[in-house]
Amino acid sequence: MVVRAVRGMKDILPDEAARWQRLEHTFRSIVERAGYGEVRTPHLESTELFVREIGADTDVVAKEMYSFSRHDDELTVRPEGTAGAARAYVQNNLAQLEPVTRWYYLGPMFRAERPAKGRFRQFHQAGCEIYGDAGPACDAELIAMCTELVMALGVRDFVVHVNSIGSAGTRARYRDALRDYFSPLAGSLSDDSQRRLVTNPLRILDSKDPRDQEASRGAPSVSALLDEDDAAHLAKLRGYLEDLGVPYVFDPRLVRGLDYYTRTLFELKITSGELGAQDALLGGGRYDEMIQHLGNKKPVPAIGFAMGLERILAVTPLGAPRAGPDCFFAPLVESAVGRSLVLAKSLREHGVSCELDGRGQSVKAMLRRANAMKARLVAIVGQEELERGEVTVKDLDRHEQVRVPFADLFDAVRARLAVPRSSSELSRDELRVPASVP
Ligand code: AMP
Q1: Is residue 364 a contact partner of residue 382, using CB atoms and an 8 Å limit?
Q2: What atom in ligand 1 is closest to the CA of residue 118?
């Protein structure tokens, strides 16, 4: 029986990987311009990190983590990037080294969710974190950067949702208000939410169970419970977003699936319907309590977001697949293979991408392959060329060819590559064996 990839996990083959690389490149250049440096943390962390920081009652921790014991360690393959980055921030004493730290990360995350359109068990996130700045200006800057990012990636139909969940006191009052609201409805809630009613009623609001969603319809919103400082933070954030011209909707029902958030929460949702129920492209918020909770001596405010790369790729234009090689080497006789290998190696050393087909195919088959892989040039070495110390260089784009001595190959190739590619497709005639090739 054929061994297949694990359910919910995908291979990314080279043509598709080219799109990933473009996405990653755009992400890196936008966030690096805004002062973020890349952090790479281990994909495995202590299970305790996620249980403590994400919250034992969240779906991620209660149902979706890939956790296992090895020797005496309880380990989990990371389901998200914020907790690991925060651990690294504390462990490496960053708060002592600099007042404000801006980090970004990019990589796979793992959640044992039920696979669906836009929902995988291994998926990829690119995210940013700011540590050390409590002010609403960095919330606004971060949200504005998220919109710049998705627009640069070609996403058009989206809405930014913003809310404030308040700080610890507000959340405690909100929990009480939700308990009062949901208690008379307890019988109509899912089993999970009946338990959440006792442990953490906020989680009922982001339950995916239709019974819980129905019961949540009339639930109080957190806005009325915000204290003066929370409300002032939110008002300033909204003012800055208006200054920046970032369109958004204030969504007092927005709660996010992880427990660590304080004050600002935001989510960017696609509105075209292409992703069905999985319409969140990215989400984030403030988590001012986590750094001290992780053992840092002083509290350090923090905010961040994570963007799902599979979802971005599902809604952005395809983009060109992988580019073909600059030069395809076609040795026509076995005795020409060694010389072709040497010439290709030397061109590569000069920065020209080359591929060589040493399988002993006919020239027609090799030209067809060079054309299919969208090579720009073909370097043909047949018996006659070999005897004369020459190569036939065929320009598939401009439909012309020349013969040059081995020593002049690089110059001939460079001159042709300097001319931009035309978009014209190779004509059928080009697939015929040229008269000058033996
Ligand atoms: P979260 O870490 O849950 O706040 O998710 C942040 C973003 O990651 C979401 O907006 C999605 O774009 C993406 N994401 C989360 N879970 C998955 C998943 N199972 N499959 C694909 N993308 C996901």
Answers
A1: no
A2: 21
